[in-house]
Amino acid sequence: MKRNMKQAKSGRMLPSFLALLLGSGLAFNAQANTSTLKVCAASDEMPYSNKQQEGFENQLAKILADTMDRELEFVWSDKAAIFLVTEKLLKNQCDVVMGVDKGDPRVATSDPYYKSGYAFIYPADKGLDIKNWQSPALKDMSKFAIVPGSPSEVMLREIDKYEGNFNYTMSLIGFKSRRNQYVRYAPDLLVSEVVSGKADIAHIWAPEAARYVKSASVPLKMVVSEEIAPTRDGEGVRQQFEQSIAVRSDDQELLKEINTALHKADPKIKAVLKDEGIPLL
């Protein structure tokens, strides 16, 4: 952090004893900070996180802090988790953000602690065999539960199902306008649409769907999409992602400490993810 040079150039000098006291205070604060891990988290965005600490990312944060021998402090945000980096981490209100894509250019990211993907979710008793976006059974379907702006939407356009699905997609959020605002498509709702038969199939990020697939009142099948879905333009669409922990780009010492802790705690981390039902790649 750059110092404020205006006071240093004003010609006014602090008494030496006061400077020593301030220096001691700064050293104390720095030491106190290294004993606490401040994790920015959404206060109500399950299955990732909530203030009751019932999300799987809350559990992973506890494992991380414990492995680092630090006291865990959650810094809560009432906004969606997509705003945690810009409105919390980069404003120095916390030390880390859980669950960001590896290589996110806004931050420095840890070694990935798991990899998963978007997945097709459909009733297990329908005799369907859906493995990818080229599966013939998709041609006979008309209602797809997806999140707009995701790889699912891109692929829905690719198989010429987007326009016919548009009104259904908007009905999932009560036809609210998404202009200039973020509207979350809750994963429990999307899974419940499949359970009730209102949707023929869902295609969403598996880690946020797994808990609800596991607890569904009817058996559901979850099939992870291929890493790169082929498209007509030849570019393809990535559907599998490695998840990391974000720190500020200049916080390299903390990043090293986190990487060491992640490798040490890997069995515990994987146990939480498997218990959640998240398909790991």
From TrEMBL:
Cystines in this chain: C40-C94
One term under GO cellular component: periplasmic space
Cross-referenced InterPro entries: Methanol_oxidation_MoxJ (IPR022455), Solute-binding_3/MltF_N (IPR001638)
Gene Ontology biological-process annotations: methanol catabolic process
Keywords, in A-Z order: Signal
Domain Solute-binding protein family 3/N-terminal residue range list: 36-276
Signal peptide (UniProt feature, chain positions): 1-32
Stretches assigned to coiled coil: none
UniProt cross-references to PANTHER family, sorted A to Z: ARGININE-BINDING EXTRACELLULAR PROTEIN ARTP, MEMBRANE-BOUND LYTIC MUREIN TRANSGLYCOSYLASE F
Family label: Belongs to the bacterial solute-binding protein 3 family.
Protein name: Extracellular solute-binding protein, family 3
The organism's taxonomic lineage, starting at the top: Bacteria, Pseudomonadati, Pseudomonadota, Gammaproteobacteria, Thiotrichales
